[in-house]
Design a protein that fits this description.
- With 149 residues, the protein is an all-beta fold.
- The protein has one domain: Immunoglobulin-like.
- Helices cover 0% and strands 64% of the residues.
- The chain contains no helices and 12 strands.
- A 5-stranded mixed sheet has the order 4-12-11-6-9, with no helix packed on it. Strands 1-5-10 form a 3-stranded antiparallel sheet, with no helix packed on it.
């Protein structure tokens, strides 16, 4: 499956269409470190081939550092209700074959992941890694750097 991805200030999916504000960037500028970036969104369009419809697929998104380490993207409660670091987002999706779908045509599945208050300890290069069914589909680079005066 092919995946198109972009970063935005915020995004949401309504009726399988992505609505985004402040899209098309790849750098977060900070006056100093550590820094907490208020909000960012990762929007995805997954191109699902005809032969992969009527099947459940697993979508996962992770942020990795330039040396391949997972970067925390947030916090959530664990099974005991204690705070735990979140390093991945995603879930499962299934697309059927509507009657009007022509044999061989692909379908699109749109997703938007909004991350609030992401903390960066230092400047660096990062990549959003998108996997489908545990196979890497794409990487979207992002940089965090000091703002020049």
């Amino acid at each position: 499956m092919r995946v198109d991805a972009f970063l935005a200030d915020t995004a949401e999916v309504i009726n399988n269409k992505i609505y985004a504000l402040g899209m098309g960037w790849n750098t977060i500028y900070a006056r100093g470190f550590p820094v907490v970036h208020r909000r960012l969104a990762l929007a995805l369009t997954v191109h699902v081939p005809f032969t992969d419809t009527n099947s459940t697929h697993k979508l996962e998104v992770r942020l990795v550092t330039e040396d391949g380490q997972e970067h925390p993207i947030g916090m959530r409660a664990d099974a005991e209700g204690k705070p735990a670091v979140l390093t991945a987002m995603g879930g499962e999706f299934t697309l059927g074959r509507p009657p009007a779908l022509v044999d061989g045509d692909e379908q699109l599945a749109c997703f938007a992941f909004v991350v609030e208050a992401m903390r960066f300890e230092a400047a660096g290069k990062f990549e959003w890694v998108v996997t489908i069914d545990d196979v890497e589909a794409t990487r979207l680079p992002m940089r965090v750097q000091t703002q020049r005066a």
